[in-house]
């Protein structure tokens, strides 16, 4: 039966006295009695089956199919996997904010926000495949070295699979949120007195000697999952590739995965032309950018230092695979300073999107490439935000509260007396 009414689609009702307000009324309580308000909706006027079908269609999936943004692409990821360890993950949004068009000079800049994954970074896409594989090969335990995100993700997926996890992170150089995740999900967490490169060397030795399954991005199954960042991005653009895909680069696993995804998408007819990759490193940890400037004649290692601890890496493990990715896509590699990263992060945060410091390297990179004339202002550009804002609260507090003099984007909190005049003053200052 169709429900007919002359009511608007939605309105507000006082739970206490039943008074009604329009949907657009800004008051936060009932003007009659001060009661709490509730939203009421007109019934949708569709038969149940039609309604359910509509919800399902919008979601783009049938009920029995997997809801993972990795395993949706299973034909291109790991076709033989029958039972998978999936959170699920992926299906991350593609965002646009005019403020960032203005900031970078790239009109219509799109942000693929991988911070929307279950543990807050793109690592979950690789980890669902990596841990699935660990189970398939009968691993007794899994391990990784990490600057924090890989370990958070491994800890979560290992917990789901019921596998013991060992993570090695550089003592004193892991963002608080990431360390907290690894502890919470129950991984055996080793704070190594050294950098990421030391952790990686050590965990490789440990995996060989102790027989634990290694889940760094040198593990190829990880990269198969990470390819789906690109596949999903292409899908969101109707398989009409952008001109540029810009990403932060540290250990270079992701750069390698992006190159492989594009190569295969092209070979298998999903896209007709290659976008160009731009890999962005922090200036204090930029061995790959240095190699690029020399036409990749040499591989460099550096003593890394940057505020973007996620990419504080001096000897990237996937160097060779990443060189291939840059060459095949006519890509570029560049370095941006810590100051540029922090400024770009403040811009990403201030428009309500938010990301962790390393992620902002991609936005800083877009800005720099537009400035250099490498990216045309009208080019179609997608930048990947690799991690969530809450990964690194320590850095946020340093930037907004503690740094003297206040950086340009600093948002100082104000402590006030509990009275209205102080609130009014604070509001007037902001307006
Ligand atoms: N962005 C974030 C937030 C990261 O955590 C990483 C790497 C990168 C970018 C760079 O990706 O290494 O594939 O070039 N994090 C690793 C980790 C190293 O241990 O979590 P990459």
Description:
The protein has 431 residues and is α/β, with parallel strands linked by helices. Helices cover 40% and strands 14% of the residues. The protein has 15 helices and 13 strands. The chain has a six-stranded mixed beta sheet with strand order 4-5-13-10-11-12, sandwiched between helices. α5 packs parallel to α6 (176-184), α8 (220-236) crosses α9 (253-267) and α12 (338-350) crosses α13. It is globular, with a radius of gyration of 24 Å. The mean pLDDT is 93. Ligand F0G is lined by residues 121, 123, 146-150, 217, 248-255, 310-311, 356, 358-359, 386-387.
Name every ligand kind in the structure.
Answer: ligand F0G
Shape: globular
Order of helices and strands: EEEHHEHEHEHEHEHEHEHEHHEHHEHH
Can you give the mean pLDDT? 93
Radius of gyration: 24 Å
Give start-end ranges of low-pLDDT stretches: none
Number of strands: 13
Alpha-carbon distance between the termini?
51 Å
The quaternary state of the protein chains shown equals single chain
Proportion of residues in helical segments: 25-40%
How would you classify the helix and strand content by structural class?
Answer: alpha/beta
Quick one: biggest sheet?
6 strands, mixed
| Proportion of residues in β-strands | 5-15%
For the largest beta sheet, what order do the strands appear in spatially? 4-5-13-10-11-12
| Helical segment count | 15
């Amino acid at each position: 039966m169709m429900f007919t009414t002359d009511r608007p689609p939605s309105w507000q009702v006082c739970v206490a006295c039943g008074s009604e307000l329009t949907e657009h009324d800004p008051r936060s309580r009932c003007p009659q009695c001060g009661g709490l308000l509730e939203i009421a909706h007109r019934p949708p006027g569709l038969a149940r089956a039609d309604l359910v079908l509509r919800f399902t269609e919008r979601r783009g999936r049938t009920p029995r199919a997997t809801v993972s943004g990795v395993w949706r692409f299973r034909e291109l990821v790991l076709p033989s996997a029958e039972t998978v360890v999936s959170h699920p993950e992926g299906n991350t949004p593609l965002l646009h904010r005019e403020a960032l068009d203005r900031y970078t000079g790239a009109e219509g800049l799109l942000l693929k926000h991988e911070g929307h994954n279950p543990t807050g970074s793109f690592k979950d896409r690789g980890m669902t495949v990596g841990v699935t594989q660990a189970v398939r090969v009968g691993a007794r335990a899994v391990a990784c070295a990490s600057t924090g995100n890989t370990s958070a993700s491994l800890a979560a997926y290992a917990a789901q699979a019921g596998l013991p996890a060992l993570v090695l992170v550089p003592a004193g150089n892991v963002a608080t949120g990431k360390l907290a995740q690894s502890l919470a999900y129950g991984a055996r967490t080793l704070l190594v007195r050294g950098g990421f490169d030391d952790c990686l060397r050590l965990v490789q030795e440990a995996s060989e000697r102790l027989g634990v399954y290694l889940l760094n991005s040198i593990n190829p199954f990880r990269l198969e999952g990470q390819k789906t960042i690109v596949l999903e991005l292409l899908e969101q653009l109707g398989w009409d590739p952008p001109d540029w895909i810009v990403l932060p680069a540290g250990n270079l696993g992701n750069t390698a995965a992006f190159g492989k995804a594009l190569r295969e998408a092209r070979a298998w007819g999903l896209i007709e032309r290659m976008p160009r990759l731009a890999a962005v490193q922090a200036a204090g940890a930029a061995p790959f950018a240095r190699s690029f400037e020399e036409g990749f004649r040499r591989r460099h290692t550096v003593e890394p230092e940057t505020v973007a601890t996620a990419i504080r890496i001096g000897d990237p493990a996937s160097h060779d695979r990443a060189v291939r990715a840059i060459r095949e896509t006519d890509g570029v590699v560049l370095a941006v300073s810590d100051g540029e990263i922090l400024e770009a992060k403040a811009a990403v945060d201030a428009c309500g999107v938010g990301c962790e410091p390393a992620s902002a390297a991609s936005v800083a990179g877009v800005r720099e490439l537009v400035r250099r004339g490498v990216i045309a202002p009208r080019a179609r550009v997608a930048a990947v935000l690799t991690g969530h804002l809450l990964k690194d609260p320590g850095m946020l507090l340093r930037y907004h509260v503690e740094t003297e003099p206040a950086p340009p984007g600093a948002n100082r909190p104000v402590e006030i007396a509990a009275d209205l005049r102080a609130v009014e003053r604070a509001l007037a200052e902001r307006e």
